[in-house]
Amino acid sequence: MLKLDDVTKEFRIGAFGGKSVTAVQNVSFEVVPGEVVSLIGESGSGKSTIGRMILGLNPVTSGSITFNDRPVQAGREYYRHIQGIFQDPFSSFNPVFKADRVFAMIKDAYYPAVPEPEWAERVAASLRDVRLNPDQVLGKYPHQLSGGQLQRLLIARALLLDIKLLVADEITSMLDASTRIDVLNLLAELKSRGLGVLYITHDLSLGNYLAERTVVLRRGSVVEMGLTDRVFGDPLHPYTRELLSAVPRLHEAWDDATPVDTCRYHRRGGSGGLLEAEPGHFVACAHLSTCS
Ligand SMILES: Nc1ncnc2c1ncn2[C@@H]1O[C@H](COP(=O)(O)OP(=O)(O)OP(=O)(O)O)[C@@H](O)[C@H]1O
Fold first, then answer.
1. What is the mean pLDDT of the chain?
2. By alpha-carbon position, which residue is closest to atom 28 of ligand 1?
3. How far is the CA of 108 from the centre of ligand 1 (A)?
4. For the segment 29-61, what is each residue's pLDDT rounded down to a tens digit?
5. Which residue has the higher pLDDT, 129 or 228?
């Protein structure tokens, strides 16, 4: 199980790192095996920073991230179980390597003792799992494959490992509508095999389609989380309601002045924690800075 406990991330910025920006603040949530959790929020809300911390690509400033009770530790053993896939599949491949090479690197790093014929069969099986024809993709360079094929290749590569958690950061945003649905269905199939997925997205409808639970981020903090049906069906936080009513402009930068001024939880629950409004459905007060 992946567990984030009170995680905060500050980046040092400016000349000589004299200033800092808080990208993620006091975030806690879990992803259990066989569950898709979608992490949604506007651009700059801290989604990718959370993904990168889970993958050990950025250290946390405070709090902890554990996977099966062990702290994140970037390295071969960790990546055997946890893999990340990102928005732009082309940037994940070295353009001068054919697809075969991607798989050979996994063999060299993790399975050097496996005989070649057995390895070839494993590769073919993982490609078939993601509905790719091995004969049509192996032997090709990245530019000879489509974005959807490359995303599937990345998933196939992850499947060759003993993967338990996939961090999928905007993986469908560069795909056309039909390929997007194919990749989403593939993720749904993987979750039914016990894989946990953190699905990071701007796109509420995709999160709604796939995820059992939804975590809504605003300016680095969780404002609401719970079962997707409940968060979408009965959004409690004004910001979540705003997000749901503003779907068509989700890809635009948001105006910081977005009014978030009505909150029925104001003054009901301390100064910053999430309130459990109903079992498993948590919401932040919309007036955190003034709530006491
Ligand atoms: N390496 C960094 N150095 C300084 N600031 C950073 C760094 N990475 C991210 N940030 C800042 O942290 C905040 C959160 O960024 P992040 O990329 O996590 O947001 P996001 O929700 O994933 O946005 P998008 O959907 O546009 O990718 C932003 O204000 C961003 O400018």
1. 84
2. 44
3. 34
4. 999 999 999 999 988 999 999 999 999 999 999
5. 228
For residues 41, 46, 47, 48, the Cα torsion angle rounded to the nearest 10 degrees is 140
Considering the entire predicted model, what is its pTM?
0.86
* Pair type for strands 274-278 and 82-85: unpaired
Indicate which residue's Cα is closest to atom 2 of ligand 1: 11
| Mean pLDDT value of segment 223-230 | 94
- CB burial of 158-187 (b: ≥16 within 10 Å; e: otherwise) equals bbbbebbbbbbbbbbebbeeebbebbbebb
For residue 166, give both structure tokens.
């996939």
Distance 216 CA to ligand 1 centre (A): 16
Ligand 1 pocket residue status of 221, Cβ below 6 Å? no
Tokens of 283: 């919401």
User: Looking at ligand 1, which residue's alpha carbon is closest to its atom 6?
Assistant: 11
Domains of the chain, start order: 2-284 (3.40.50.300)
Please name the residue whose Cα sits nearest to atom 20 of ligand 1.
44
Query: What is the CA(60)–ligand 1 centre distance, in A?
Result: 14
